[in-house]
Design a protein that fits this description.
Four copies of one chain form a homotetramer.
Chain A (H helix, E strand, L loop, with lengths): L1 E6 L4 H10 L5 E7 L8 H4 L11 E2 L3 H4 L5 E4 L6 H10 L3 E4 L9 H8 L13 E2 L2 H10 L2 E3 L3 H15 L9 E6 L14 H4 L4 E3 L7 H12 L6 E6 L6 E8 L6 H12 L5 E3 L17 E8 L4 E8 L3 H15 L16
Parallel strand pairs in A: 1-2, 1-4, 2-3, 4-5, 5-7, 6-7, 8-10, 12-13
Antiparallel strand pairs in A: 8-11, 9-10, 11-14, 13-14
Chain lengths: ~350, ~350, ~350, ~350
């Protein structure tokens, strides 16, 4: 049994790790931290997780935890994750960091968008961006995984083959993304109250969302040179899920069928990518509670633009499910273990 | 591999069987029917269920299906299920009927509440009421299971030990239940439209819901004599889940702790029943997507009434999950197989 | 123009007063307080209320406000309202208090349920309980109005004629009420976050909700002697509205038609009470955004119990709308002024 | 009193006319049609509209209705509206048509997108496109109003001044719009069921929505030459509201403040347009239940694109409210009469 430790277990990505790993028969959760809930049973904070009978949240103290597990998931706030990751890394432990701290290779770009100093820039080159569909081989050998952001996962996967094959004009990419409320985290804020979000829909962080540089970095790597995008995020009145609608002008006169074929070629052996047939467009309900990414596409014959629509569950493929997928790959476990659930529908 | 056939696969209980059984590694789905969608692939109607790649819906023709499987789930409308169940039963097949057709032992009571004739009253004594927590031994040997209704499951489980032990006044039972919209089935009706249900909450079928005689029958069996209840149902603006709040005057001066202890004694070895500690009351979010029934209780010291609150997912413990639990029991499979998921929360 | 001042304008009942009074052509809002938002424009906190162009929230200082208006609405927390009400009362001002501070005539019962001392018990006899359908004549002459609670409004109105006419057994009353989330107020609490409430439904404060003594007091006044009830509250995943389902055993053999007639007799001249015909049961969508109370009733012929179902908007008839109705009555304005909107449906 | 007749009163735009006109003190509703509900009282189909006590739905028969009113609102399906409009027009009546039948000046474009023949092409030049912010003077004198579509209203208003002043590259316009479910109408369809829409979000009619030619026509008129756009629509899990996020490359180096100033200049005297200050972006909650259009804007300094975000209530400013606004203008009534409600928030 693989020994797993979760740093930060009382937020939505931490609790989602608890939910997913409850069905994983090759791992054992040996500890979970929460500063606010230290000393309290997991099942008291989350009655739905009654199976963790005696497991209690504990305070995060590196010295006390660093010898207890084989792999550490960090579901900590951006900026706080760095040091924990660095110390566990230096202790020779495998670390899967769900924060943004090691996603952006250029420390000064990180500092500019996250308004916090990066204290371990030398570790950035050790970190592997944990998107298995692109970096699977590197993930197998990685010690430190920078688990991708939710929006970036939903954006990079559909665009990747078109950029890699130089089929679209990189300067024309416009990304319109919508996320359920769990993407904002589990915190006490009036703007996240039920009555403030329900029956509302709004754009937020227009032209300044912090996932922008992460998306631009990975799209740039695929394309072979730097890319600047328009990326607008919106808050959906639902719990889970991201839908991204992406526009780009094409370099070549492709049909919708051609575009689908390009996606199918790229992802034909991927267990978690579903390319929909012509005429079908994904919705969040296809992926709710699952690790799948569904992609549909249409080429608008009137404007010659490629339109891509992708759907993921922000807490699963967009965070904790992808983290477990990375763990499975790192430890030679069946990549789909504990991740085969179909969407809870309705 | 156990061969499974689903009659009626395009409604919510049928599709829920497809969802649950996708994770069951000891069964194989050999066929699924739908009159409306006959000839169409399951994955076309339900893109979320892409794994059923080549499986197509077919029309229900007893002669063509009766030799193909070991067990048949009937997710057919009340009244239509009878004949299919009877013919499969006569062909020696195991049948798990999710309709109400074999739940009520007295055919004339069935006919009075369901406004339809019962054509196979002789089969009623063969049918076992599929509530494992009460009838597990009979289920093991059963050929025909009458899978319980969603509301009755949520009501019988909490009341059972108090009636069996004659701790409450049977004539004072009042049941106030609320269900998510999937309980109404998957059909085209303006009253079920999003805009008609969202931001609304209403009582329906007041004093005449058809689950009344089923509840009264099973409570009466537990109590040892007949019982008449008030049972009011309400429509909640959410997809899944039932919460029942139940009131009864007590015969004995019990405390809340006593009431919890009585529930714990009854259900201590049950894998799917969770009795909450004093001060905790269940919510639908504890059980969404799961086969669990959560029960909490309070004795009101001012009125001496027992108040029980239970939560289930109407499509899982209230229908398809309980049906799979029954199948597992009938075939000697681990009772919790394919049913161990924790609640999707949030 | 009547000069109106609102103490506590940044919560949901305060902002609802701003919304309703925007359409009232005989009043002028001369000031509004908020400690958190003092100095900030109303239209900055609530962009939907752009018409209050220059109006700014100010800090509540009695000396500065007590000569500025003819009537003061207090939308302050329980316990904090007392002193403000008392000082304005002593300054000879009309006060409509939306808190619970002056609703309960017996100060020790107030103190027991609200866990706070009552500093002005001598004012309790001055306060008129602001339910116009029962106390209209007293309201006309009142200086201090104790505006009713949301749940009590939804419970007292349907039960009143049956208790007054002694048609039900007072000891058998059971009230099962469900409220939208705005009833919990506008505050930063994880338990009120969108993801915690959406797709969930739970009972809360079982057997100990603080509206219990208010309901018992007014039902007792109607009945002529004291009454003890079971009252259970539930949190609905929607913004606005309360639905109460009420059960009581009858003293007389009434039919459903009789029960409807009793309600009609009582409320035939009331502008805001709608009694539904036999076979119709109200839903929250009938009253959303309005000052109406809809009531439906069924007598269960099998149990001889009276079942009443009532629907109100908790922020309008359950709070701010009723407060404006009281103001209209106190100042001889048409009672329905600014309160005639029909339900926003869908 | 102006006599008003509503053709098609049982859908969402028809019932919204009933809701809005209930507060209009200069009109009297003399009749309302519904084929499905002919002979039934309005208050029976819509209990929330109890004030229409004796008004019954009737079947639409031109001969019987054409002399009864001064103005006719047509809330009929596309294709069916044409003939009714034509006959009432020929009878000299004022007609406000909420369908698409007279919005598109080129009959062949109409026929191509709506797949139905236009039988009265000669009337197209008589019809005035009922967007008061652009065509107020023509509306004053019009006999036949083509009331704008919901999405077009939300798109044309923010883009208009930028196109009129040639500040953006017309070929780069991308419009990403999201609508609440009432936009799909009130009809029995499984895809509109609560469980199918709730917790889901999907794009639909990608690159082929029928509002495309209407938007292109009006944007083209503003710009002075024809325009082709990308326009993608999505279905939001909420009842009311449209949010459009619009992208275009600029011709000039404008700042966000400049863009706001251009909108303010254009709309400074408009009673129903609110331009938000820098840093504020509208949400649907600002306009729910109201006739307002809120507009916010950001210029992305990294891409030099103009990003416009607009919010309207699809049933009010996007349909019935705008229709009443047009009626007020046509008959010399205060343009804001019956349309002054602020947003129901929360």
């Amino acid at each position: 049994m693989l020994k797993v430790f979760i740093c930060g277990g009382s937020g939505y990505t931490g609790s989602e790790l608890l939910r997913i790993l409850a069905l994983h028969d090759e791992v054992e959760i040996v500890g979970v931290t929460s500063e606010k809930s230290a000393g309290i049973k997991v099942s008291e904070i989350f009655p739905a997780f009654f199976i963790y009978k005696e497991l209690k949240f504990e305070s995060l103290q590196i010295e006390k935890i660093k010898s207890r597990a084989d792999v550490y998931f960090l579901a900590l706030p951006h900026g706080k994750s760095q040091q924990v990751a660095a110390e566990l890394f230096q202790a020779g432990k495998k670390v899967i960091d769900l924060s943004a701290d090691f996603r952006i290779k250029n420390a000064s770009i990180y500092e500019q968008w996250y308004k916090t100093q990066h204290l371990y820039p030398e570790l950035l080159k050790e970190a592997v961006y944990g998107l298995p569909e692109i970096y699977r081989e590197q993930i197998k050998k990685a010690t430190l995984i920078a688990n991708p952001g939710c929006y970036p996962t939903s954006v990079i996967l559909p665009l990747y083959p078109f950029l890699k094959n130089k089929l679209i004009e990189a300067s024309t990419i416009i990304i319109d993304s919508c996320s359920g409320v769990s993407g904002a985290g589990r915190k006490a804020e009036i703007s996240l109250n039920y009555c403030e979000v329900n029956e509302d829909f709004r754009a937020y962080n227009v032209a300044k969302h912090r996932h922008t540089p992460e998306i631009e970095q990975e799209l740039g790597f695929a394309f072979g040179s730097s890319i600047t995008i328009d990326f607008t995020t919106h808050l959906l009145p639902l719990n889970r899920g991201i839908l991204s609608t992406i526009y780009a002008s094409m370099n070549k006169d492709l049909s919708t069928a051609d575009a689908i074929e390009i996606l199918r070629q790229q992802y034909q052996n991927e267990p978690f990518i579903q390319i929909l047939p012509e005429g079908e467009i994904p919705g969040i309900k296809h992926v709710k509670g699952t690790n799948y990414c569904y992609i549909g596409t249409v080429v608008n014959p009137r404007t010659k633009r490629l339109i891509l629509v992708s759907a993921i569950d922000n807490l699963v493929k967009g965070a904790s499910g992808q983290a477990v997928q990375n763990m499975n790959i790192m430890f030679g476990i069946d990549e789909t273990k504990a991740l085969r659930s179909l969407a809870l529908s309705p």
